[in-house]
Amino acid sequence: MKIKELAERLGFEVLAMPSPELEAEGGYAGDLLSWVMGRAEEGNVWVTIMTNINVLAVASLAGVSAVVVAEGAEIDGEIVEKAKEQGINLFRSREPVFETVLAVGREMGL
Amino acid sequence: MNEVINFHFAIDGNDFTSAGKASVQVKKLLRQLDFDSDTIRRVSVAMYEGEINMVIHADGGEADVNVHDNYIEVILADRGPGIPDIELAMQEGFSTAKDNIRSLGFGAGMGLPNMKRYSDDMNISTVIGQGTTVTMRFNVTGM
Q: Which of A15, A50, B21, B132 is most buried, judged by most C-beta within 10 A?
């Protein structure tokens, strides 16, 4: 499924979507960046509550299809701009991590 | 490709927000050189971990990426405090990072283990009070 379809169907707030055609495949949830880099797979939707700038480097290096910030957490405008520059899809969900992951999984038929 | 291509980066130890810049750059360069995505991912993730380590523990350092015919070598050198017990540092979950670093999502004690896992060969040379050099080798099979 294309990441833009997933974002639309789940009603995520789209903060940055410079790469709407990326395929979303599976997901990963976590806030410890090294765990995410070591375990997330290419194309995964990454659900986290981390919102610092290093999230973008990790997203880029791990090759995730999108970062979904859960719990409606605040995100600095500078990070949104950087995400656009770096081609990283950045969404926000009002739901907690668990519910967000469930919704993504359901939509993917997992 | 016949000759070795070298990329050199200075890692700024004062700027935590720009940590990872060199690795992201390497990922782009390796893409341009048409390496397979698995190799690119392994190299860039392992290098990022090393870069972060240099920023957290050693006030920055130097990174060299040497692209050979059938392998890529990443050399990360710093003039930090050195690693007193490498075996301990290699254990998953062991970290000496401070709380302010942990609050950013680092310091999970996965840096060196991830570097080891993603590379085909890793060597750590460290002298207390003088610095640490980590050399990683990545075999390229998918070209």
A: B132
Domain span including residue B36: 5-139
Tell which residue, B9, B135, B1, B13, has the closest CA to residue B81: B13
A:49-108 residues touching chain B, CB 8 A cutoff: 50, 52-55, 57-58, 60-63, 86
Q: Which is more confidently placed, A104 or A34?
A: A104
Q: Which ipTM score applies to this complex?
A: 0.78
Number of domains in chain A: 1
pLDDT above 60 (res B100): yes
Phi, psi (degrees; rounded to nearest 5) at B7: -120, 130
What is the domain extent for residue A29?
Answer: 3-107
Distance between CA atoms of residues B25 and B7, nearest Å: 10
Q: Do B45 and A52 touch (CB under 8 A)?
A: no
